[in-house]
Design brief:
Strand content: 25-35%
CATH topology of the largest domain: D-amino Acid Aminotransferase, Chain A, domain 2
Low-confidence stretches: none
Distance between the termini: 32 Å
Number of helices: 8
Mean pLDDT: 97
Bound molecules: 4'-deoxy-4'-aminopyridoxal-5'-phosphate
């Protein structure tokens, strides 16, 4: 059974109720995080909670808990589920109001919701073959650095990929790569790892940071810079990264092979570094 946390209570997920007047429901007025848990230990929890804090500050929603408060709830949600590997979802909205009104309520009472699902690793097939992606113009708003629940544009863009039997939609704005509809994107050209710079146009991924840290630690040459569309289309390797997908090679883009059309050596190496890093973190190293 799935147990969730809603405003101080733990209860079965299908029994949890919120008001239709909640601004999360009416306006997508909220922040969220997805935290991967391996062997029952949250991965990069402090970093996820720091990003939540930044999003909430930008939304002008008071953070209802400090690091210790959040950590205790996350630990409890993890303990209440049977899986060693989980994906914990947490959300804070500005809460309900008496009337529908764009302006904030005078005394907001944020809604806090957490749930967890089993985190299923990428299949051996996906890791061996990679996944297919399409591309689309990035028509989202100009605060893509905030992890808000207002994800309609991301949902529409992701569905374009699903409609074509693909895993992800790569987004280009003004001729440059931003990210995927629900992932960050890395490019490999001539043995060099390229990553778009953090800005208001993309989400600063926790996995993105780990990948760049691993590149630095292992001496893989890498550059953080704007990546024009033609460099993406003629890349040797493309990867998508996210907390639930980790590092996953993209081997087809818009019906054409990426590089050789097979998973590349640098992607395989990064995947191995990532797995080893997870293992040391989970052992408390
Ligand atoms: N960009 C977008 C738009 C996303 O939704 C996600 C995943 N939540 C990411 C990037 C990757 O972020 P992270 O590595 O923190 O999961």
């Amino acid at each position: 059974m799935n147990i969730c946390y809603l405003n101080g209570q733990y209860l079965p997920r299908d029994e949890a109720r919120i008001s239709p007047m909640d601004r999360g429901f009416l306006f997508g007025d909220g922040a969220y995080e997805v935290i991967p848990v391996y062997s029952r230990r949250p991965f990069r929890l402090a970093e996820h909670l720091a990003r939540l804090d930044r999003t909430l500050a930008a939304l002008r929603i008071a953070n209802p808990y400090d690091l210790a408060g959040w950590s205790a709830i996350v630990a409890e949600i993890v303990a209440r589920h049977p899986w060693a590997d989980q994906s914990v979802y947490l959300q804070v909205t500005r809460g309900p109001d008496a009337k529908r009104n764009h302006a904030f309520p005078a005394a907001p009472q944020p809604t806090v919701f957490l749930m967890s699902d089993e985190l299923v690793a990428n299949s051996a097939d996906q890791l061996a073959e990679g996944v297919a992606a399409i591309s689309a113009p990035d028509y989202r708003w100009l605060r893509c650095d905030l992890k808000t629940t207002a994800l309609l544009a991301n949902c529409l863009l992701r569905q374009l990929a699903v409609d074509k039997g693909c895993a992800e939609t790569l987004l280009f704005r003004d001729g440059y790569l931003t990210e995927g509809s629900a992932s960050n994107i890395f490019v490999v050209r001539g043995g060099v790892l390229l990553a778009p710079p953090k800005s208001h146009l993309m989400l600063p991924g926790i996995t993105y940071d780990v990948v760049l840290e691993l590149a630095a630690r292992h001496g893989l040459s890498h550059e953080v810079r704007e990546i024009p569309e033609d460099e993406v289309r003629s890349a040797d390797e493309l990867w998508l990264t996210s907390s639930t997908k980790e590092v996953l090679p993209i081997t087809r883009l818009d019906d054409r092979p990426v590089g050789t059309g097979r998973c590349g050596p640098i992607g395989r190496q990064m995947h191995a570094w990532y797995q080893a890093f997870k293992d040391t973190e989970m052992r408390g190293g």
